[in-house]
C-alpha cells in the first residue's frame, strides 16, 4: 500500500541520507510503500427494515400484562414515570428482535430521557403500551401516529 503523509508543514519526505524534510508537493521521496497493510473495507450501511413486524394487538397486550405482573411479583415500585418506564423497558427488550425500541424524549414526562409508556420501531411506528402511564399503568397495545424515525433508540437491557 502506497501512502503519503501530509502535515500542516507539508508532505513528509524521507531523504536518502535518512533526514526528514517537508515538501510542498508529493514526489518519489514523499511516497512510502507499506507492505502487509491493507485498507479496511468501509462499514456496511445500516439496514433499514421494512414495515414493522408488530405482534398482534392481543399478543402485544398479553406481553405487557405479563411484564407488569412479573415486576409487581418481584416487588418493583411501578409508580410515577420511572415505574412506567420499567415496564416499557422490559417490553422493548423482549421485542428487540422485531426492531422494537424506545422513544427519545429528553423533555417533559420522561425517565432517563425516554418516553415512559410507548415503544417505537425504526420506521417511526409508535405503540402506546400503557394507559395512565405512571399511574394505573393499564396494559394496552394501541398503535399510534408514526413519529420521526430519528427519535427511535435501541432498547436498553433492563
Q: Spans of 5+ residues with little confidence (pLDDT < 50)? A: 47-51
The arrangement of helices and strands along the chain is EEEEEHHEEEEE
In which order are the strands of the major sheet placed? 2-3-4
First-residue to last-residue Cα separation: 46 Å
**Strands, count:** 10
Q: Which outline best applies? A: rod-shaped
Structural class: alpha+beta
Share of residues in strands: 15-25%
The average pLDDT is 86
Query: What's the gyration radius in Å?
Result: 27 Å
> How many domains would you count in the coordinates?
2
In DSSP terms (H or I, runs of 4 or more residues), the helix count works out at 2
Q: Which properties best describe this structure?
A:
rod-shaped, three-stranded antiparallel beta sheet, single chain, 158 residues, alpha+beta
Q: Can you describe what's shown?
A:
This protein has about 160 residues and is an alpha+beta fold. Helix content is about 20%, strand content about 20%. It contains 2 helices and 10 strands. Strands 2-3-4 form a 3-stranded antiparallel sheet, with no helix packed on it. A 3-stranded antiparallel sheet has the order 7-8-9. The chain has a two-stranded antiparallel ribbon with strand order 1-5. The chain is rod-shaped, with a radius of gyration of 27 Å. The chain starts with a strand and ends in a 5-residue tail after the last strand. Residues about 45-50 have low confidence and may be disordered.
Walk me through the topology.
Layout: E1 2-3, E2 6-7, E3 10-14, E4 20-23, E5 32-33, H1 57-73, H2 80-94, E6 102-103, E7 118-120, E8 126-131, E9 138-143, E10 152-153
Antiparallel strand pairs: 1-5, 2-3, 3-4, 6-10, 7-8, 8-9
Helix pairs in contact: 1-2
Amino acid at each position: 500500500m502506497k501512502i503519503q503523509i501530509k502535515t500542516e508543514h507539508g508532505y513528509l519526505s524521507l531523504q536518502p541520507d535518512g533526514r526528514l524534510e517537508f515538501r510542498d508537493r508529493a514526489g518519489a521521496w514523499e511516497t512510502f510503500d507499506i507492505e502487509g497493510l491493507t485498507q479496511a473495507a468501509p462499514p456496511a450501511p445500516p439496514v433499514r427494515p421494512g414495515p414493522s413486524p408488530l405482534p398482534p394487538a392481543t399478543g402485544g397486550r398479553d406481553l405487557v400484562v405479563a411484564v407488569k405482573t412479573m415486576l409487581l411479583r418481584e416487588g418493583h415500585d411501578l409508580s410515577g414515570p420511572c415505574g412506567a418506564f420499567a415496564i416499557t423497558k422490559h417490553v422493548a427488550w423482549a421485542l428487540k428482535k422485531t426492531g422494537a425500541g424506545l422513544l427519545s424524549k429528553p423533555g417533559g414526562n420522561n425517565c432517563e430521557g425516554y418516553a415512559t409508556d410507548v415503544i417505537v420501531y425504526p420506521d417511526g411506528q409508535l405503540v402506546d403500551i400503557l394507559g395512565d402511564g405512571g399511574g394505573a399503568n393499564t396494559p394496552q397495545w394501541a398503535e399510534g401516529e408514526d413519529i420521526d424515525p430519528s427519535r427511535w433508540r435501541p432498547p436498553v437491557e433492563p
